[in-house]
Amino acid sequence: MQSEIVTAYIGLGSNLGDRAGNLLFAVRGLIEASFAVIKLSAVYETEPVDIEKDLRFLNMVAEIKSEGVTPSQMMARLLRIEYLLGRTDKSLKKPRTIDLDLLFFGRETTDSPFLTVPHPRAHLRSFVLVPMAEIAPNYVHPIIHKDMKTLLSESADRSSVVRWDPMNAHPRPHALNG
To answer: Tell me: the pLDDT tens digits for 15-69?
Structure first.
């Protein structure tokens, strides 16, 4: 019996230290954890949401494929990558070297004390919706039944999500309705 290949979407974020380097090491960690990285969004500089300090994040989304892995097993690998990259404090409102969120796991839904998929706030956050709409605009949220383009256009989140360009000191804001 052959196991199913699943497409999953991982949110990556960093607001401590070498933010871009942390994202790069996290992508490498995904590959080393036996995930096939299919697409990467651009990197976006974003306002912190529900974080104690005003340290801007770099965020992106990775589309990955995996075979024979459950959502809980995937999350366990993501937590290991976070730990290896120096994130030991999983408190919600703290700055972090790296944050890896399992946003979507195919069309699956799960709700346990360990993991909720789809991520319960993915559809509410511009820092998730902008990169998701970039790499998977037609992906339909398995519970809300709307695609990423629609969720982004309907989002009430007006926090800043700016495409990051390390060579440009004045990046352009992303147009939420564009």
So the answer is: 999 999 999 999 999 999 999 999 999 999 998 877 666 789 999 999 999 999 9
The residue to which tokens 């699956």 are assigned: 108
Please state the three-class secondary structure of the chain as a single string. CCCCEEEEEEEEEECCCCHHHHHHHHHHHHHHCCCEEEEECCCEEECCCCCCCCCCEEEEEEEEEEECCCHHHHHHHHHHHHHHCCCCCCCCCCCCCCEEEEEEECCCCEECCCCEECCCCHHHCHHHHHHHHHHCCCCECCCCCCEHHHHHHHCCCCCCEEECCCCCCCCCECCCCC
Give whole-number Cα distances, 104 to 21, 31, 74, 92, 163, in Å.
Answer: 24, 18, 11, 20, 22
pLDDT at 178: 42
CATH fold, domain 5-163, is Alpha-Beta Plaits (3.30.70)
How far apart are the C-alpha atoms of 175 and 173, rounded to whole Å? Answer: 6
- Domain edges within the chain: 5-163
